[in-house]
Specification:
The protein has seven helices and no strands. With 188 residues, the protein is mainly α. The protein has two domains: 71 residues, Orthogonal Bundle (Rna Polymerase Sigma Factor, Chain: A); 99 residues, Winged helix-like DNA-binding domain superfamily/Winged helix DNA-binding domain (Arc Repressor Mutant, subunit A, Orthogonal Bundle), CATH 1.10.10.10. It is extended, with a radius of gyration of 23 Å.
Length: 188
């Protein structure tokens, strides 16, 4: 890869990398950091890029590692409360009798949370594959909860066109979910 191509990486692949990172990290700031780290790593490793994969595939591989690093950092690092001097105030976490000052929240159901997280990722991937106008109609109706009349006014389309687009989007989303392991019965 020619060093001059590095200036085009952000323009050509930045949005794609950001969307991918955002889906995994659920934070714009963390996604921006991951993309930035990816591009810096790619610049420093460009001599090792053999060109066997497209630049987007190569950058995506680097991004995946940066996302994992970010998730590991977030799991390991816990912000402790600070006192007026800026020092960690660990004692404020406990009562006089040595018990936690705040009760520990229940963990919930980690298995169900993992399945929900997987469903969100698949939904995002499927929605990204919809045609733009179809994605807009689907999002306005199913996510924003807008009525048909509002959607038609917003997008400048007829109610019939809106219903057709919504119907096709729903069929596509259902098929995409089924192809990604989510059956008609709702089991993953």
């Amino acid at each position: 890869m020619d060093t001059l191509d590095t200036h085009a990486w952000l323009a050509d692949h930045g949005d794609y990398l950001f969307r991918m990172a955002r889906r995994q990290l659920h934070s714009d700031a963390l996604a921006e950091d991951a993309v930035q780290e990816t591009l810096l790593a790619a610049i420093s490793a460009q001599a090792r890029y053999a060109g066997h994969a497209s630049p987007r595939t190569w950058l995506t591989g680097i991004l995946k590692h940066k996302i994992v690093d970010q998730i590991r950092r977030n799991v390991r690092e816990v912000e402790l409360p600070r006192d007026a001097d800026g020092e960690e105030a660990v004692d404020s976490l406990f009562r006089q009798d040595g018990h936690w000052a705040e009760t520990v929240r229940p963990w919930g159901n980690p298995h169900a949370e993992a399945e929900l997280s997987q469903l969100r990722r698949v939904l995002d991937d499927c929605a990204d594959r919809l045609k733009p106008v179809m994605a807009q109609v689907f999002s306005l109706r199913e996510v924003a909860g807008m009525e048909t009349e509002e959607i038609c006014k917003e997008l400048g389309i007829t109610p019939t066109n809106c219903w057709v687009l919504l119907h096709r989007a729903r069929l596509f989303m259902r098929q995409c979910l089924e192809l990604n392991g989510f059956s008609k019965a709702g089991a993953a």
